[in-house]
Amino acid sequence: MASLGYSKLKNVVPFLLLHVLATLLCAYARPATFNQDFRITWSDSHIKQIEGGRAIQLVLDQNSGCGFASKYQYLYGRVSMKIKLIPGDSAGTVTAFYMNSDTDSVRDELDFEFLGNRTGQPYTVQTNIYAHGKGDREQRVNLWFDPAAAYHTYAIQWNHHQIVFYVDEVPIRVYKNNEAKGIPYPKSQPMGVYSTLWEADDWATRGGLEKINWSKAPFYAYYKDFDIEGCPVPGPANCVSNMKNWWEGSAFQALSPVEARRYRWVRMNHMIYDYCTDRSRFPVTPPECRAGI
Length: 293
Ligand SMILES: *[C@@H]1O[C@H](CO)[C@@H](O)[C@H](O)[C@H]1NC(C)=O
Ligand SMILES: *[C@@H]1O[C@H](CO)[C@@H](O)[C@H](O)[C@H]1NC(C)=O
Hints:
The protein is mainly beta. The protein is about 15% helix and about 35% strand. Strands 1, 2, 3, 4, 5, 6, 7, 8, 9, 10, 11, 12, 13 and 14 form a 14-stranded antiparallel beta sheet that branches.
């Protein structure tokens, strides 16, 4: 076969298109991997692939922290990863896992921030939500297990009805779409998936009371089992509006009774800060706190 004539090409093109389409569709049907779906955004020398590429190790030392981000942005879906946090004296370190629209003025952002602590003291998980450029919605819970002893799954689920932050199977935060009541909700800007490990002892440790102990450095955090199920942007145009995506299903529009019970348990036993009840910061209760969950 010396050359591919026009008539042959005509037969080949539809197959090529099908192939491209199949690849695009598969891009969000398969489990995410670090190499295919993420890129290093800060200090390559501090991020190392381990276990034959199945997991990665992030390092924080006196020279630098580090970070990585997804190659694509996503509009709605579920993002999760398993993380094993810094053991021992981790006070002053912050390990973050978040989604961010990467837009300066009207930022949307969904944050998990793991604040280290002195040996034996519980890690604090801070969550925050920016909608249409406004944040200041911090909540903090103490974890009921040692997150440095083993990997645990941290997930953000985002659909047209609600945003839920999960620690393993336990919802620790719910933000409802109350746009009908005039409350902003992230709904039109795609967000990338990010993670960073850095030093923030000026604010993370009870307002800067505890300093990072550099003689314990380097500090290591571990990640694996990246999973992104969502609508990649750029990607299939009708994905975002497709209400048949599993994460839009009725089972995900509100917490199940079991989840609601777990969520109440977290709020009663592990919540240590809620901006909704911080009268010194917000003499007038923010509207989304009044709208109910
Ligand atoms: C660290 O532990 C102390 C004592 O249990 C607790 O009050 C605090 O919220 C924890 N978290 C941080 C970030 O200091
Ligand atoms: C910092 O770590 C060193 C080495 O483990 C220890 O000797 C020292 O007491 C620690 N300092 C603080 C303030 O905890």
